[in-house]
Amino acid sequence: MRPDLVEKYRSQRVPRYTSYPSSPHFTADIGGDAYRRWLGELGGTSHLSLYVHVPFCRSMCWYCGCHTTIVPHDDPVLRYLAALTKEAKTVGALVPDGPAVSHLHFGGGTPTLMPAASFITLMRELRHAFAFSPSADIAVEIDPRTLKDDMPDALAVSGVTRASLGVQSFDPEVQKAINRIQTPEMTAAAVGSLRRAGIRGLNLDLIYGLPKQTVRSCIETVETALAFDPDRFSVFGYAHMPGFKGHQSRIAEADLPDAEERVRQTLAIEDTLLANGYVRIGFDHFAKPTDPIAVAAANGTLRRNFQGYTTDDADALIGLGASAIGRLPDGFIANIVPVPGYMKAVEADGLAVGRGFAIQPEDRLRSDLIERLMCDFEVDVEAVALRHGIHPARVMPDPDALEEMEADGLIELIGTRIRVRDDVHALVRSVAALFDAYLDPAGLRHSKAI
Fold it and tell me: How many CB atoms lie within 10 A of CB 36?
């Protein structure tokens, strides 16, 4: 990647575009009444997906940007699961007969922190609350450090098809700096137990830009991770925002790599994965060429949602749990973030809506434009706009901004077709931001472009 482009765009703060508009633009004007109405209108949808948030961990990783709570024992988790089950029953009763769940993702926190029996019970309650497709893809995020011996079998019995294991870095110095000690042996034990239980789909999560991280340690981490033969890798850049996540202040900024070093790290990870037969998916995922997500990327059906790049093409995504976000045809629903507030709201009303956003026709168009750029690295603005029945002039970016990016060598512009150049895919978020009508120029709630 050209150093001049890195220098120019590295400090721009832009959303990750897992939704449009991004969650900071949701408002308290949307509440439970709107959510109930939107759920009741899902009868015309063919299928839907669920996201279940379990916001608990045993210890805090200092790089973490998730909504999670540290608990030393299971009692708070079990009380939370009771509220989660009640919310699922309430929402399920509001969804008309017809749509079946095609995807379910358990995120956190650490969903597998709950007892194995509780996971089985929760999965049974979800199947009672919602209709499930027989071929539903059920995924769960796992911290290998806390995976108990009986959990893999519980996951398999519950129908889990895919597990995503957090690795981040195998460098001992980096692990000390982020308060996450996880040896390769711990990860190997988790991988082995999952595969013995029959869970074949495995993803590994890596992070670059961490304190004390180097290009060499990034390569060594990938080489170690390759021995586990995962189907997919997710490779994220660490976003240092201690103003929003106070525990990140424990990371010394002097230990963080600068922008150019971050670029070298991400390129080193990419080169190592590509050399070992993986293909790039979007700007931060890699997969074996035969994996469904790679097939989707190749045929132009790759999607993007709150879990990142996905094959999930469901008409609606329902979020369950504290801080969970869902997307229905009519708009976004974000649950209350603090666990106590979430539980109190569910106990009183069955729902826990904190904020939301009613989607307008132009929002849908801009969302599609951004998603295609993020997934395909190119988009024909006129073709997409006409599919929405909207004149492309309403959403075509400022000509001066396009001309500047073209002169920089960031994009190619052919009529209304915008293509991100192959050697600068990592900057696709900056191009997508051209279509963001809500973007705050200061962008203080978003991570840097690199």
Answer: 17
Bridge partner list, 332: 327, 357
- Name the residue with tokens 């019970």: 121
Contacts of 295 (CB under 8 A, 6+ apart): none
Q: Which CATH architecture has domain 361-435?
A: Orthogonal Bundle (1.10)
What pLDDT score does 287 carry? 98
Contact 376, 300 (CB under 8 A): yes
Report, as ranges of residue numbers, the positions in the chain whose pLDDT lies below 70.
1-3, 6, 10-11, 441-450
Q: How many helices (H) and strands (E) does the chain have?
A: 15, 19
What is residue 143's predicted lDDT score, i.e. its pLDDT? 97
Spatial distance between the Cα atoms of 424 and 2, rounded to a whole number of angstroms: 8
pLDDT in tens, 146-199: 999 999 999 999 999 999 999 999 999 999 999 999 999 999 999 999 999 999
Q: What burial letters (b/e) apply to 212-245, b meaning 16+ CB within 10 Å?
A: bbbbebbeebbebbbebebbbbbbbbbbbeeeeb
In 31-131, where do the E strands start and end? Answer: 47-54, 56-57, 69-70, 100-108
Domain boundaries, the chain: 14-358, 361-435
Kindly report the average pLDDT of the chain as a whole number.
Answer: 94
Fold of the 14-358 domain:
pyruvate-formate lyase- activating enzyme (3.80.30)
Q: Is 161 helix (H, G, I), strand (E, B) or coil?
A: coil
* Residue 441 exposed, middle or buried by CB count within 10 Å (0-12, 13-18, 19+): exposed
